[in-house]
Known about the structure:
Number of helices: 11
Shape: globular
Structural class: mainly alpha
Radius of gyration: 18 Å
Largest sheet: none
Helix content: over 70%
Strand content: under 5%
Amino acid sequence: MVLFGSVINALGIILGTIIGLLLRKIPEQMKQTVMTAIGLSVVVLGLDMAMKSSDFFFVIVSLVLGTVMGEWLKLEDHLHGLGNMLEKKIGKSPTGNIAQGFVTATLIFVVGAMAIIGALDSGLRQDHSVLLTKSMIDGFTSMVLASTLGIGVLFSAIPVFLYQGGIALFANVIHQFLSDSLLERLIAELTATGGVLILAIGINILGLKQIRVANLLPSIVIITIIVLIQYNFS
């Protein structure tokens, strides 16, 4: 089953969120300290991912162009609007802001090499080991996030499933057009660009500065185009 890994990943997030909601009655001071720990961990993860690039200049270019596009499209507003719509549908959550939990968790779970590599393995080889490992990591992360950000984290399972499931379904098509060397280069640059986005999420969690991270998402598309052009003309 091509979508098995994606399904398990989504279920892992849902289960982790439910457990996290059961732990929501922890003291406020402890919540703040936990969120600080999460923020620091996310910052370190982002920095580690960003270092995967073989030419960071292209990452910078993609981030600048992608941010301009994201600001023009107002992606952050649309993503928060989706979260607010969910909040209206199910009512305000006593455990936290649904939109904030949804946006934060979605960006953390979707941006990263494991999502791409795992989905490709699921589609090409029916090997779900990477996504199963990611499921455990995301499940634990969603548990911690849900204990502080609330039920909005649960709804991140939907875009995670659609994103990874889509890559898995079209994996054979992707593999036909991309050589192994190009795919390896592409994943490295996508990881580095995604790392900067993850770093921005960590800064938001720490409250150092509010960055409209969703408006940086087009940089993922831009870096893909840049790598394809460079590879074909080098």
